[in-house]
Amino acid sequence: MSTTFQESNVAQDRIIFFDTTLRDGEQSPGATLNVEQKLLIAQQLARLGVDIIEAGFAIASPGDFEAVQKIAATVGTENGPVICSLARAIKADIKAAAEAIKPAAHGRIHTFISTSDIHLKYQLRKSQSEVLEIAQEMVAYAKTFCDDVEFSPMDATRTDPEYLCQVVEAAINAGATTVNIPDTVGFIMPSEFGDLIKLLKQNVSNIDCAVISVHGHNDLGLAVANFLEAAKSGARQMECTINGIGERAGNAALEELVMALHVRRTYFNNLFGRPTESTEPLCNIDTKQIYKTSRLVSNLTGMLVQPNKAIVGANAFAHESGIHQDGVLKNRLTYEIMDAKSIGLIDNLIVLGKLSGRSALSSRLKELGFELSDQELNAAFVRFKEVADKKREISDRDLEAIVNDEIRHAPEAFKLEQVQVSCGDRAIPTATVTLMMPDGQEITDVSVGTGPVDAIYKAINLIVNVPNQLIEYSVQSVTAGIDALGEVTIRLKHPDVGTLSGHSANTDVIVASARAYLSALNKLYFALQSPTAKIGDREKLKKEAAL
Ligand code: KIV
Ligand code: ZN
User: Fold this and answer.
1) How many Cβ atoms sit within 10 Å of the Cβ of residue 416?
2) 93: enclosing H helix or E strand
3) Which of 56, 82, 136, 282 is spaced 20 to 30 A from 517 at the CA atom?
C-alpha cells in the first residue's frame, strides 16, 4: 500500500495548502470552466506548489467527473499534488469520488455532512445522533477506497461545540486523516476561530491523529484573518482559492495567506516551533507563481480581480501619492512591505517586438512558465506577429494575454470571420458580422444599436439565435499606453444553463468585444447540446447539497 499524504507530511511546522479553486471557486456564478480549462488551472496549481488540489465534485455531473479523472491522471503524478474529490456523506457520492481520483498517485476523498442545529433541523431533518452515525459510517466507507480521507462537519462554526467535538472524534476514529472545520457562512470572528481550534485540541482525544484544516467564506471579509488565527492555535491545513473566488463573497484567498506567512515569517516562526529569525518558508508554495496563477484563473473564469485587491490587484504595487512615490524612489522599503518580484511580477516590461522570431517568443514563454505544444506555439506566434504589427512593444503581460486568449479558449461552434462597425457622433452605430456556423456555413447579418458593442451583439444574436441576457460587460487595459491590448470580459445568463462568462484580448476592443461574446455563446451552445452536462443541473445539485 502506498504511503498516505499524512504519513509523509505530518506537517506540524508548516502549512499545507489545499486549493479548492476548481470546486468551491468554480461555484462562483459564471465561473464555470470546461475540462480543458480545469486541466490548465490544475497544471498551474501544481507549478504553484499547492499540496492538494480539490479538483471537483465528481458526482455533480459527467463533466465534473471527467475533469477530476483527467486531473488525477495528468497532474496527480508521484511527485505531484494530492488530487481530491468532494463527496456528500452518501455512498454514491463517495463511490464516484473514489473512481474519479483512481488514476492519481495520491488521491483523497473529502466527505462532508452538516452538523449545525439549523442545518440539521431545516435542511437534513435529522437528529444529532443520526448525523453522527452517518459521519462515522461514511468516513469508514470512504476509507475502503482510499487511505487519505478528509471529513468536514459543514457549518462547523455554528455547530454546538460539544457535539462538534464528538463528531470530529468519531470521524477520526473511523479513519479520517484530516478534519476540516468549515466556516460555511463566513460568520466567525478571528479570535473565536482560534478558540474553537484550541477547544478541539483540548477535547478531542484523538485529535493528534489527524491534520486540523480550516475552510472559510468571506461574507464579513474575515476569512484570511480567521485562518491565520486558527493556524496560531494549531490548524495546519488551509483550504483556499486563487483570487479568493467562490460561493457568495468567496473563499479565503490563497495569495493573501501565503504572502502573510511569507512577509511576517518572524511573527509566525515560533508558533510553528521554529527559531524566530528562521528564513525557511512556512509552506511549499512558490510565491513567484502567484501572479501568473491569478491571471490565468481570472482569464479563464471571467472573474475579474478588483484593482485594489491585496497582492494581485493592478494597484497592489502602484504608488500614487507624491509622498509615497518620493519615499519609494529613495528606498523602496519606505512604503513597500514586499517586492513585486516575489509574486512573479517582473519589472522587465518590454521584452519582444515586431522583429522577434519564433525562438525568442518560445524562450520568453518558457521563462514565463508556459509549456506549449508545437501547434500551440505556432498559433501563439501568428497571434504575436499580428499584435506586434499594431503594438510596438510587447510586454510579459501582453504575452500572457495572447497565450490565454489564443491557446486557451474553449472549443468554438461559432467562429468570428469578420466584424465591421460604423459609428460616431453623427452616425447610427451599425455593425456587420460574419460568423462561421457549426455546419461550416458562413452567415452575415447587420444590426444597428445604441453603441458599437450593442450593434455587434445584436447582429451576433440575429445569427446565433440563442436568447440570453447580457448581465455584465467590462473592458480593461492589459498595460498602459494608447496601443495597449484591451481585455473584454462579459457575463450572460440563460434560464436553463445559468451564468456563463466570455473573455478576449485584442488591440481593437471592438474585435475583443465580439470575440468575448462569442466565447460565452460557444460555452452556452455546448451546454445546451449536452443535456447530461447541463450546467443548470449541476447548479441544482450543488444547491441541494447546499455547499
Ligand atoms: O463551505 C463549506 O462548508 C464547504 C464544505 C463542503 C467544506 O464548502
Ligand atoms: Zn465552502
Assistant:
1) 19
2) helix 91-101
3) 56
Count of CA atoms in the C-beta half-sphere (13 A) of 411? 9
Q: Alpha-carbon distance 178 to 512, whole Å?
A: 45
Burial of 440 (C-beta count, 10 Å sphere; 0-12/13-18/19+): exposed
| Position in ligand 1 atom list of the atom nearest CA 247 | 1
295-317 pLDDT, tens digit each: 999 988 989 898 899 999 988 88
From ligand 1's centre to the CA of 504, what distance in Å?
32
Question: For position 3, what pLDDT does the model report?
Answer: 42
pLDDT (tens digit per residue) in 133-190 = 999 999 999 999 999 999 999 999 999 999 999 999 999 999 999 999 999 999 999 9
Nearest residue by C-alpha to atom 3 in ligand 1: 184
Q: Is 185 in the pocket of ligand 1 (CB under 6 A)?
A: no
One-character DSSP codes across 162-231 = HHHHHHHHHHHHHT-SEEEEEETTS---HHHHHHHHHHHHHH-TTGGGSEEEEEEB-TTS-HHHHHHHHH
Q: Which grid coordinates are listed for 353?
A: 517586438
CA of 156 to the centre of ligand 1 (A): 9
Rounded Cα distance between 153 and 162, Å, is 13
Ligand 1: atom nearest CA of 216 is 1
Grouping H, G, I as helix, E, B as strand and the rest as coil, residue 244 is helix
